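User: Please fill in residues for this 175-position structure.
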């Protein structure tokens, strides 16, 4: 079995920088909502990430109604996050400074930039961690490429189904 985070494990603390450049824990809840969704995005250089984050912002109220707080984090610097805010219309917390060690601990796929025009650091490929009221990983989705991401409406419907039907955490059988 992998040492990486698995479904049903407790979500660890992830200390990064908030958009004011203060140290913060992206996994800590900022509201009284029982669930939290942490979106790992590639960074400012990725137009698909910008599209996903803006789409999430439009759905944020629906996620809140389902009991889910949203936050997003990348390995970008604070300056890159600040610049990215010009293209983002988000209404949930964004964080920067996810380190290589943290990316590795989370079991994320990590890529080198294709050139310095893309970005100036290795970055995590997209991932989503949905954390239940017991701080366990209820849903884990990670990709090794920017083109494979869950449909946000399907994800929301799945979360609502899980919460309404006491649906168990899946994918926990080891062999």
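Assistant: Residues filled in for all 175 positions:
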């Amino acid at each position: 079995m992998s040492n990486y985070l698995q479904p049903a494990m407790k979500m660890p603390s992830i200390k990064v920088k908030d958009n004011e450049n203060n140290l913060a824990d992206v996994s800590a809840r900022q509201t009284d909502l029982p669930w939290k969704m942490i979106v790992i995005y590639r960074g400012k250089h990725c137009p698909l990430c910008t599209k996903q984050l803006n789409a999430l912002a439009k759905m944020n109220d629906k996620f809140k109604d389902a009991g889910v707080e949203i936050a997003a984090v990348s390995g970008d610097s604070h300056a890159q996050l600040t610049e990215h805010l010009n293209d983002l219309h988000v209404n949930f917390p964004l964080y920067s400074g996810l380190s290589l060690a943290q990316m590795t601990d989370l079991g994320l796929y990590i890529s080198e930039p294709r050139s310095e025009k893309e970005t100036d650091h290795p970055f995590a490929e997209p991932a989503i961690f949905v954390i239940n009221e017991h701080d366990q990983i209820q849903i884990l989705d990670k990709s090794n490429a920017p083109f494979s991401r869950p449909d946000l409406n399907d994800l929301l419907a799945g979360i609502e189904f899980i919460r309404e039907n006491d649906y168990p955490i899946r994918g926990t059988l080891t062999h």
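For context: The longest helix spans residues 47-65.
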